[in-house]
Amino acid sequence: MSSSPAVSGAEAVVEMRGVDVVRGQSHLLRGVDWTITPEQRWVVLGPNGAGKTTLLQLAGALMHPTRGEVQLLGETMGAVDVFELRPRIGLTSAALAQRIEPGERTGDVVLSAGYAIVGRARERYDIHDLTRAALLMQQWGVQSIAHRAFGTLSEGERKRVQIARALMPDPELLLLDEPGAGLDLAGREDLVSRLTDLASYLYAPAQVLVTHHVEEIPPGYTHALLLREGAVVASGPLSQVVTAEALSETFGLPLALERTDGRYTARRRT
Ligand SMILES: Nc1ncnc2c1ncn2[C@@H]1O[C@H](COP(=O)(O)OP(=O)(O)OP(=O)(O)O)[C@@H](O)[C@H]1O
After folding, report:
1. What CA–CA distance (Å, rounded) separates 132 from 168?
2. Known InterPro entries for this protein (predicted)?
3. What's the CA-to-centroid distance between 232 and ligand 1, angstroms?
4. ipTM of the complex model
5. Tell me, what DSSP letter sits at residue 133?
6. pLDDT at residue 203, rounded to an integer
């Protein structure tokens, strides 16, 4: 993997302007403006119920805004066939993982992503598909379990398989909704180091990582968006946005923040 991020100045992959998402009396998102360019790697932080998954569903072309404009990969939501757009966006989430049959062969979970299906049906895969799937499984450390049923994997293995699957169609945008959830310390550190590698890869897609924990921010991530009650508290370059003050406001309690070797830790300020 090359160590320099892609060239900047390209067209935005995500452009949101004045976005509201309203369900009944609830404002899930309010007045969100967000621009992501191809070389950027974003972390989205916020407490439970802040609207992070809703924001990712908008960015994944899985939802339309109630008000405002969402442009994805140069196309305006509402004026584009979302079924053409979705294969250009890689997404991992707990909801998607639940749709994978426990008996599905792990190698097929990755391979079948090129056809936007879960599980291998009667598709014919060419040598490029097979080579790419093998390479991704190697990169994500799951090649030795390719023959195993997905339902027999550990949580960490499942998370890595899902990311390999999301990368299979060579997406222009990768959205990771809480990939660190449920991992033990070693699993989390392994994930952070693999995401750090991916962040620095020249040809990697733009990336968005949703998390509750600053400890999961991979070094090499460039930007952050902090959400609270559906509204953006702060957004911009990581080092300017991830501060004790902004995090305290986002999570609603006084926090002390430390940064060592590009990694963050946070704790309650006493
Ligand atoms: N269809 C809906 N109707 C009403 N409220 C909804 C609906 N979908 C989600 N919500 C609410 O919107 C808020 C934001 O939900 P969302 O899942 O986006 O938050 P989140 O930041 O991802 O939360 P978590 O960190 O707990 O996963 C929550 O309070 C949720 O209960």
Report:
1. 7
2. AAA+_ATPase, ABC_transporter-like_ATP-bd, P-loop_NTPase
3. 15
4. 0.96
5. H
6. 85
Asked if the model's pLDDT at residue 232 lies above 50, the reply is: yes
49 CA to centre of ligand 1 in angstroms: 5
Q: What is the CATH number of the domain that holds 72?
A: 3.40.50.300
Is residue 53 classed exposed, middle or buried when 0-12, 13-18 and 19+ CB atoms within 10 A define those classes? buried
Distance CA(123)–CA(133), nearest Å, equals 15
- Using the mean position of ligand 1's atoms as its centre, give its distance from the Cα of residue 218 in Å: 25
Beta-strand runs (E) in the chain: 14-23, 26-36, 41-45, 67-72, 75-76, 89-92, 173-177, 206-211, 223-228, 231-237, 255-260, 263-268
Q: Within a domain: residue 43?
A: yes
Domain count, the chain: 1
C-alpha torsion 133→204→20→79, nearest 10: -70
Residue 7 has pLDDT above 50, yes or no: no
Task: Answer whether 93's CB lies under 8 Å from 142's CB.
Answer: no
Tell how far the Cα of 54 is from the centroid of ligand 1, in angstroms.
7
Q: Residue range 42-64: average pLDDT? A: 96
Residue 7 lies in a domain: no
* Most ligand 1 atoms within 8 A of CB, residue of 25, 26, 45 to mutate: 26
Query: Which atom of ligand 1 is nearest to 51's Cα?
Result: 18
List, for residues 138-188, the tens digit of each pLDDT value: 999 999 999 999 999 998 999 999 999 999 999 999 999 999 998 999 999
pTM of the model: 0.91
**Domain assignment present for 3:** no
Q: What is the pLDDT of residue 5?
A: 42
